[in-house]
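Predict the assembly for these two chains.
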Amino acid sequence: MTGRRTVGWAFAALAGAALGVSLVVLIVLIVITALQAGPITAMRAVAEAGISLSLRSMDVPSTRESLSYSTIAQVEAGSPASGLGMARGDALVAVAGVPVDRPSRAWDAVGAAPGGYEVTLPVAWIPRSEITLGALRATSVAGETRVVLTSPSPAAQGGGLRAGDVLLSAAGIPIVGTRQAWEALVVAARTQGTPIELTLERGGELQVIAWDPTARAELRFVRNPLRAWWTFLTTLNEPRYPERAGLFPAFVGSVYVVLVMAAVAFPLGVAGAVYLEEYAPNNALTRVIEVLVANLAGTPSAVVGIIGLEVFARALGAGRSILAGGLTLSILILPMMIVATREALRAVPQTLREAALAVGATRWETVRHHVLPYALPGILTGTILSFSRALGEAAPLLLLGAFLFVTYVPRGLGDSFTVVPLQIFEWATRPQDGFATVAAAAIVILVTLLLVLNALAIVLRNRFQRRWSG
Amino acid sequence: MSEHVAPPVLSTRKFSLWYGSHQAVIEVDLDIAERQITAIIGPSGCGKSTLIRAFNRLNDLIPGVRTAGEILFRGEGIYRRGVDPVAVRRHIGMVFQKPNPFPKTVFENVAFGLRINGFQGNLKDRVAQALVQAALWDEVKNDLHRKTGYDLSGGQQQRLCIARALAVEPEVLLMDEPCSALDPIATAKIEDLIRDLARSVTVAIVTHNMQQAARVSDWTAFMLLGELVEFGPTREVFTRPKDSRTEAYITGRFG
């Protein structure tokens, strides 16, 4: 008696563990991805203020150290940032008092600032070299590079610099080049704050002047998550800056590919299943076909990609188009469609077929009017599940040679394309700040889409079941 | 209730049927008389359902079925080469053991056979007529398009199936234990209905309820292990069986 109970408990524990692990994994996955994708709101806020950032670094002379800083890679015309006089090539030094050593620091500072959707934060930046310093010339004296300020800019003059000053170091960082002089200022401002202790040689004498070359202003940021996600989903992709990345081309590509796949795989799959279940004689050929379908269902998706490449892209000349992608995916899900549809057809009571045949219906009339409608909820459920599998596939399309990098929206069957999983793959492999965030955001959108599709499958099934049972 | 000999509508000539290697019907010779009720009785597994399903070639659906001998419908062999089973079924309707209405409205259940057979007349009238014939009209006339076949009670469902079969005006109505899934009241209604139907249509009914066979039928065939043991007017089979096995069965010694 106790032995039998123990077995029962063991099974209960195993089942509980399996279900618990699935649930925990799913929740952890969603939470982690959502957390990863969180900064997209602040990234978008910075981008909409007009600033695109990129990471630079400066090697500290005579050390092996390297210090990073952020330049403003692009300022959108007419944006608040351009209104403040920011321009391409300036360095962003601090946002809301937080030193900015890399782009993500600026986004995080905007994201973490207290306040509502809209916040106005102080920003500090150092305009590009010709505005901050003016014209520089490098001369070589006794093998040592000396950086001479030949014609100081108004800002430099205002800071007390004069023509002919030789710049030696900024806050202890040696100045060894005309470009590096400005970088040294930026890095010094970032690491040690302003004013900067600038050491220079004027008329043969060393002088130290305290200078604050930063420009300061208040900039308004709009941190609206809904708008950020919506913009992410509906804008074209700007491949260089993650804060301007958009999922739209990949999203449209996915939709087109799945539509092509549906148009091919649904009728073929249903027709194949109807033939096997309702018409096929019980003979060797039928069994061979069944084995082939089962094997195709077990084919690795990468292999299916090779078929797509050789047959659709090359032999049939469809190239790396949406048509080729849709056809490739349709091969992938065709066996799943057939298996799901056959299961649904098998669940149709034989008495229903007999009822139709007994009033003089042909086989086709029986299938068309009674068997298919009865099996439809099951067929649709299987179809949607197959589609959601295809929606998440990257491998076959990667082998087909679908582009990873698409900045336009495909318009027709012949256009090249990318899909959401490939876009995620591309973003996830980028080392720069922020691409991990947009990859996570794309994952969130893809997973949401899959959940919506699966929910739709359940709703469809329930609705039809209600209809049948009255 | 007359027991005069009418010309047979359906007749089997040394008809045998195999499921794979198992022979379920063994050389049966049977005549089914026009506008009479023929009951086929016998214990479970005696081949009576198989035989009745052979009359409209429904066994064709089962893989591995083989037949020998002939079944003649008005003199034409229905198993002959080139005979379309669909055409056979248009003349020989069937009602099944378990009510199997379509999951559609009451109206569509009856109208389906008419639609696919290209019925030209007034669909509404014909459906109503079939429902009246099946003694269901009064119970469903207000819900024709509102209720589905599944919303009806078991007895109503079976009468709906009868209406569905009658709508296409078959010459023969095959009934495979039509009351076995019904309660006694519903059974009584169906039995009355069968008697009424025999005025216009030939009925062959399989039953393992001997009282039902005795109550309803004009002719009775007793089958055992695939063979037709005895066939004759119902009153004679039940009162003066010629075969000792028939006697044993109807007196309840086995079955």
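The interface with chain B takes residues 281-282, 349-362, 365, 369-370, 373-374, 468-470 of chain A (CB under 8 Å). Residues 24-221 of chain A form a domain with the Pdz3 Domain fold (CATH 2.30.42.10).
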